Amino acid sequence: MSGHSESTAIDAARSRDGDAGARIADGIRAAIIAGAYPPGTRIRQEDVAAEFGASRVPVREAIRQLEYEGLVTVVPNAGAWVSRLTLAECEEVYQMRERLEPLLLRYSAPGLDDDRLGHLGELAQRISDAGDDTEAFLTLDREFHLASYAAAQTAQLDDLVLKLWNTTAPYRRAYVASWSAEARRIAHEEHHLMVAALRDGDVEEAERVLAAHIRRTRRQLAKHPHVFDAAAAGSV
């Protein structure tokens, strides 16, 4: 094989591994967010490789990516596990979200045209209609908030906010599963208030509602420390 041909083959192999690594990372990430892999779950490379029909190389790339995102903790010479958060760490993440997401919403608001606002309104109503269905709420709530940020043109903020959302997903699941009817009602109303403020062009009010929405969750999480045991045990 000539030097050029060999280089081309190596580049092609790297490209395939990169594509496979991204696909595997997407699959594991989705499973973590969906609660299929609770915090503390061991991620065995051989099992992942068999599940995705891939070699160890893209599996290692996927694990490195998820470690960067904070979803996976790698212990040298021991293995990889789905990351755990303490209550204090989760509160820190929510403090960050409480400050960063209103800023991201401000970036996004000018691009939220009638079609996008209509979609947000539909999602807010679907969330209300979901009642006490925890999985439906979590799926639609995530879609709602990420859709409200989708028009933002930022270099780093949107990626950072998504990372923060992903790292707290297992704990949100355990917390939402324990909600009272009143807590659900308040969350639903806040979604509708955000949409109304955005429709009125009152970005400051939308930011205020969003910050309060996140802050209320943070304060309630602090009152439910059992959530961190429940999420780690995969009981929800």
From TrEMBL:
SMART domains: FCD, HTH_GNTR
Entries under InterPro entries matching the protein: GntR_C, TF_FadR/GntR_C, Tscrpt_reg_HTH_GntR, WH-like_DNA-bd_sf, WH_DNA-bd_sf
A Pfam family recorded for this sequence: FCD
SUPFAM superfamilies: GntR ligand-binding domain-like, Winged helix' DNA-binding domain
Top-level lineage group: Bacteria
Keyword Transferase: no
Entry annotated with the keyword Repeat: no
Domain HTH gntR-type residues, every copy: 18-85
Keywords tagged on the record: DNA-binding, Transcription, Transcription regulation
CDD domains given in the database record: WHTH_GntR
Signal peptide: none
PANTHER family in UniProt: GLUCONATE OPERON TRANSCRIPTIONAL REPRESSOR, TRANSCRIPTIONAL REGULATOR, GNTR FAMILY
The name this protein goes by in its record: GntR family transcriptional regulator
Organism encoding this protein: Microbacterium salsuginis
Classification lineage: Bacteria, Bacillati, Actinomycetota, Actinomycetes, Micrococcales
